[in-house]
Design goal:
This is Cupin domain-containing protein. The chain has helices spanning 116-120, 147-153; strands spanning 14-18, 21-25, 33-39, 44-50, 55-61, 64-70, 74-80, 85-88, 94-97, 102-108, 121-123. By secondary structure, the protein is mainly beta. The strands form three sheets. It has a five-stranded antiparallel beta sheet with strand order 7-6-9-4-11.
């Protein structure tokens, strides 16, 4: 069974380049906080949803496999590469898997400082273990999960 649809990949709003380099305007997203995340090959991040937060993830370098479990559409998978973005809507379980070293920026529409982030996150069973996701993970080797997921798996 394959995923029912791919989450929309958002290109930059604009890219301005000249001999000095380039300036990339990200897709419109009302942000309160911004973080830069670096992930190693095989890393898994997420397997949760947010009660009150949506966030835009913009890939600077590398690539990520974005997986979400839309309540109406089921499992959705997209490969997001450099210069592309995807939005995780509030209330939708999601995870990311990184086939290679990747740097991405996350713009959040709520304040994530202190305990605010963990207090509003709800952990879910690993989306990357769903059978319909397997074709997207072929050849990745062992996956590296976070502490919260290791605790749940026993």
């Amino acid at each position: 069974m394959s995923p029912r649809h791919e989450p929309p990949i958002l290109p930059p709003d604009a890219v301005h380049a000249d001999p000095r380099g380039s300036i990339t305007a990200l897709p419109p997203f009302e942000a309160v906080g911004t973080v830069v995340i670096e992930s190693e090959p095989g890393a898994v991040r997420g397997n949760h949803y947010h009660h009150d937060e949506s966030h835009l993830m913009y890939v600077v370098s590398g690539r990520m496999i974005y997986i979400e479990d839309d309540p109406e559409l089921g499992i959705c998978v997209a490969e997001v590469g450099p210069g592309q973005s995807v939005v995780s809507p509030k209330g939708v379980p999601h995870t990311t898997v990184f086939p290679e070293h990747t740097v991405f920026v996350t713009l959040s529409d709520v304040d994530r400082t202190g305990r605010k982030y963990e207090d509003e996150v709800v952990r879910v069973d690993p989306l990357e273990e769903r059978p319909e996701v397997a074709p997207y993970l072929v050849g990745l080797g062992p996956l590296v999960t976070g502490e919260m997921q290791r605790r749940r798996q026993g």
